Structures are given as C-alpha cells and as structure tokens.
Amino acid sequence: MLNVLVVTSQQIKEENGKFFCIENVYDILKRFTRIGNLHICASKYVDKSSNVFDSDVTELIDPKHIHFIKNTYLKTSQNSRKIIEDAVKEVDLVIGYVPNINATTALSYAKKYKKKYLSYVVGCPRDIFMNYGLLGKILAPYAYFKLHHTLKNSDFALYVTEFFLQKRYPCPGITCGCSDVRIVNLDETILKNRLACLEKIKDNEPLKIASIASYTVKYKGVHFVIEALARLKKMGITKFHYYLIGNGSKARLEKLSRKYNVDELVHFEGVVPHRKIFEKLDEMHIYIQPSLTEGLPRSVVEAMSRSLLCICSDAGAMPQLVESDYIVRRKSVDDIVNVLLKISNDELKSQARRNFEEAKKYQDVILAEKRNSFFDEVKKKMI
C-alpha cells in the first residue's frame, strides 16, 4: 500500500485529543485514500469553536500522521519546512493542494528525496493577487510563475476545471480535469418542487438571492451585488433580498450596506454546515457568484443542482457552467443590475430546468468514475 502525503492550507481542528475538518475537506481526503494511506500537513484551526468542523479526520488518517504547519502566503516558515521535509521522507507520493506556498515547498523536498508529486490545482494565484491592491499586483507575476514552475515539475495533476487552469498552468505528466463538487441523489422531485414553488410567486413578491463566500475575502465580489441593490433601490425596485452565507467578520459588508442604505435588503446567514446547504438553497430563488477569480466553484454547481437560476462573473471556468445571458463582467455593477432587471418568472422556470439538467453532468457517480480512473493510473505509474 502506498503512503501519500497531502500538503494543504485547509484547516484541521484539534479538540480533546481528537481531530476534525469540514465536510468538504473530508470528502476530498477520502477520495485520495484510493491511492494509499494518508498523511497530512495542514493548518491548525485556532479560532473559536466552529460547528462546521464536525468530520472526524481520524477515520481517514492515523493521528500520528497528522502534522500541523503554519499557513503563509510568501514563504514557508523554518519550522514548517522541517515538518514538511520529515513528512515527505515517510511517503511515496506527495499531493500538493495548490496554489499554496507550503505545497510548493513540499515539491522541492519531493524532488530532493525522489518522490512523485501530484498537484491538486484549485485556483489561479495570479488572479487572486491582482485583486489585493498595489502590493498584490506586484506579487501576481511571481505567484503565476511559481505555480507554473510547480506544474511544470509535477508528475501528475488533478485540476478542478476542464480547460481553464490546464491551459494556464500545463503539466507534462498525467492529468485529469474533474470538479471537486459532490452531488448525490439528484432526484427529479427537486425540479418539480422548484417549479411548483415558482408557480405560486406573485409579480411583486420578494426574490431571494444567495451567495456562499467568506465575508472577509474581497475577491468574492459580493460588495458589487450590494451596490447593485442600491442602484435598483434608487429605481424604486426593492424586491431583491440578498442572503450571504459564509464565515468571518461581517463588519465591512454591514458598513457597506448601511452606506448604500440597503441594510434591510442584505441578510447575513453566517456559517451553514455543508449538510444543510441544500436546505438553505431551496429557500432561495437566485444564486450569484460575482467573483473576481475562480476555478470552477462547487457552490455554483450545488445551486444549479437545486434548480436555481445562477448568475456568474466571467472569471475562471464559470462561463462553461451557465448560459451567456447570465454571465456578467467582473466588477461590473451595471451588468448585475441589468441581469436582475431582466429576470422574470418564466426565466426562473426555464433556468431551473436548464441548470438542473446541466448539474447532472456533475453527479458524484460520474465524477468519481473519472477521478478514480485517474487515481488508478497514478498508482500504476508508482509501481
């Protein structure tokens, strides 16, 4: 049995000698167990207790193989380098959850000790840094070339997109493009229930818009939706209510809502455990992902699987998910306003049908077959 090290910026919570992660991370780690026995270098959750850290990591990883490292953006700390190096020595394959500087550091040790390396590519660092002021724009080219170098030197690569990230960060080894979304039991009653609810909507009834994003991450672009609500309010349109699901301090966005005088239209739902996300999405009418950078966000596919009309920015691979009429330019408040103005009950219904059918392509049974075939190929090359 192969020994596999996962190096990631994802967090693990230690509580009373037990180890927990969020459900999404658990799903991803469980997939990697197909390759071999897991070891992990991850960030330690140090904030207040959170109810989303409820998946027992020790079901997948022996506690003695759980190593905590400091999550940084530009340079791996000396202590973390030592931990990563020692962990790399113990395994046959290293999986780097990139973009992440610690995962890139793990590549250097994998090469030093002649271990195979698999890049798990979830986003574009250049696009992320470009949205963080002058310093971010200075660092963006460095981040781009760093990840480009990592992929160039990877033996394998698993991308969450079909084309976008592969084209920008090519890998000469064996690769696979497969979303990390997990859609199970996509029952036709979801669509039937959605259409039945839409039949009951009256012309002036409030429409609920949702976004799933950390409140503190500016590149998720939710502030553009808040500004769009302000413009609509000036037109006398207040039927759209915005529900924000996520973690972090909401102070910045609350202040912005008050500034634009739309605080009665913006609702902060806080953290919702992933197992309850679908229930929350069923309460909504529209999902919007106005991000300035993305790979292929699982939240959009999850919203599509609940028969929601989805609006996305033109970032990353999102244009391949929804119809062109519902793609808005990054940072364009005008585009968001115009799309919302065009939404009718008929459009909600037609997009409910269209998106539900499109989401079928991302069912777990389909993606698992593709992903497992890739993992089996990786194992063959390891022999």
Overview of the structural elements:
The protein is α/β, with parallel strands linked by helices and 383 residues long. The chain folds into 2 domains: 200 residues, Glycogen Phosphorylase B (Rossmann fold); 174 residues, Glycogen Phosphorylase B (Rossmann fold, 3-Layer(aba) Sandwich). 41% of the residues lie in helices and 21% in strands. Strands 1, 2, 3, 4, 5, 6, 7, 8 and 9 form a 9-stranded mixed β-sheet that branches. Strands 12-11-10-13-14-15 form a 6-stranded parallel β-sheet, sandwiched between helices. Helix 6 links the parallel strand 8 and strand 9. Helix 2 crosses helix 3, helix 8 crosses helix 12 and helix 11 crosses helix 13.
Features:
14 helices; 21% strand; Rossmann fold; 2 domains; alpha/beta; six-stranded parallel beta sheet; 383 residues; nine-stranded mixed beta sheet
Taking Cα atoms only, what radius of gyration do you get, to the nearest Å? Answer: 21 Å
Low-confidence stretches: none
Strand content: 15-25%
Please state the average pLDDT score. 94
How would you classify the quaternary structure? single chain
Q: What would CATH call the homologous superfamily of the largest domain?
A: Glycogen Phosphorylase B
CATH hierarchy, class of the largest domain? Alpha Beta
The helix/strand order is EEHEEEHEHEHHEHEHEHEHEHEHEEHHH
Domain module count: 2
The name CATH uses for the topology of the largest domain is Rossmann fold
Q: Fraction of residues in helices?
A: 40-55%
